Amino acid sequence: MAKQVQQLDRVIIRFAGDSGDGMQLTGDRFTQESAAFGNDLMTLPNFPAEIRAPQGTIPGVSSFQVHFADHDILTAGDSPDVLVAMNPAALKANLGDLAKGAAIIVDTHDFTKRNLAKAGYDENPLEDDSADSPLADFDVHQVDLTGMTVEAVKEFGLSRKDAARAKNMFALGLLSWMYGRPTENTVGFLSRKFAKVPDIRDANITAFKMGWNFGETTESFIVQYEVKPAAMAPGTYRNITGNLALAYGLVAAGVQSGLPVFLGSYPITPASDILHELSKHKDFGVTTFQAEDEIAGVGSAIGASFAGSLGVTTTSGPGVALKGEAIGLAVMTELPLLVVNVQRGGPSTGLPTKTEQSDLLQAMFGRNGEAPVPIVAPQSPGDCFAAAVEAARIAITYRTPVMLLSDGYLANGSEPWSIPDVSELPVIDPKFATADDLAEGESYAPYARDEETLARPWAIPGTPGLEHRIGGLEKQGGNIGSGNISYDPANHDLMVRTRQAKVDRIANSLPPLEVDDPSGAAKVLVLGWGSTYGPIGAAVRRVRKAGHDVAQTHLRHLNPFPNDLGDILARYDKVLVPEMNLGQLSMLLRAKYLVDAIGYNQVRGLPLKSAELADVIGDLVAATEGTEVDLHSDPTASKEEN
User: Fold this and answer.
1) DSSP state, residue 110
2) What whole-number distance in Å separates Cα of residue 533 and Cα of residue 402?
3) pLDDT of 35-81, one tens digit each?
4) Whole-angstrom Cα distance, residue 223 to residue 215?
5) Taking phi first (over 0 means left), then psi (-120 to 50 degrees means alpha), and beta for anything else, what does residue 348 get?
6) For residue 124, how many other CB atoms are within 10 A of its CB?
7) Which residues of 52-151 form beta strands (DSSP E)?
């Protein structure tokens, strides 16, 4: 039968299976091939929190969602167009996210009575042809992926268990045929990955090719889909995750400042990949130290900064709680320090593999005493690079610890990233103190102040003539700046206010906020921070596509706020603040600017859904304009963006 080719502008695919089925590898390979093909894309890996949940159960389901398109997109998508389900649990766990008419490719092999019971099915949904069937609204393709894989790799003499493990490559081959993905890079990847085990290598390559051939020859799939490359600005691109981009940003910050980078870190989900990546870059002057605990990690980073390095520590929310006292020490000693918090669901151990934005107030106030810390937040996986460089600029220039708030969605998600021109990166001057800075007979004052930044001088220990002491006890400042211990009440008040003023002055170095308000007639402003950038942007596109005005701006700097933020907020009748928390930025905006910020808050361990957010924005626009906002009359509006 001749195959049809149908043109699509976008597709959202979710691979789902048991945590041992290789869904992350399958999704990653599909993503890499889509990036190489030239599509714009965003991904959403979703891991079980348990190291090894019981096989075939819903808590053990692992999934990887990839959204690829022939144009600029902002999110990994709200609802998959295609679900590949490797077992009953994967089907049941993801069925509720599908819109009517979505395609389901299901591996029938594991739909045994025992596995159905594990997933909570009383009857096999694949055998239910009634109108009330849970699969009645979907285009279901039943394929014995496991059985065909085992048969295809029989020649390699593997055990049935090892042979069945290649079923994810069969599925990848089938989906690669369906959407015209190139195959050469995946074959090369498998050849390298399993080079030391030829039978496993050949079995995976064979399964991958058999999946492609099955799509080409079977009558079950009569349509092949084409998603053309996206038009992108000229440049060299690569697919990158947030953690990888952040690690590269730290390396770049070291190069641009001329400082060796020292990472003192204790492994924690979802930040550990930064430690893993930085350990590969000793040739850029990077030293990594896997500490015995969180406190040792930050302590070693502070010591490295004292000695003249760029000290960095990476963690997630629970680790920040343990590091709090040491971060306060860095505030008191006024040393550069980067504290990277890749946020996850909390409190306590919470949801280790899920995403959240609930550590903003912890970053603002999670230390004893008046201990202000600048806060920087990236908005996309690729933006983690620029955010890391910016955080380093602030830390080095202003002699302060800086909190960089990423999250699990950014850390593990990926997108095409335009590799920046190194010559365009900012030069960061540490301005180390030298003996030449002193007048004849003058002694070094470690708490003297730069008139513009209020930063104190940074002297490398052992520099002749610059002997000094710093520490956690309050120091004598003011005109003397000796660093001697001081319990004088007036001096303490002065030093507290000076450290706060130093952080406040960072705002003077920030560029004006960019407000996306094409018509200039919007009465509603949607303000976000961090990884909500994508869902907010997609939702705003939908509202504008329906013919209504709405403005958008996004904060990278959360402490201090940009100088023009108050004026921007005052220009709009309503300000909506979507967050993956219960309203932490809304609280800060209300307190500082007395604006009636309206929160849109969800704490589900998943990114916000742009279609739901668009409805909220539409209702707010309708209330301010006195009009009706219909986002559902256009059948293409089921997609979250145009």
Assistant:
1) G
2) 21
3) 999 999 999 999 998 877 888 999 999 999 999 999 999 999 999 99
4) 9
5) left
6) 14
7) 61-69, 82-85, 103-107, 139-143
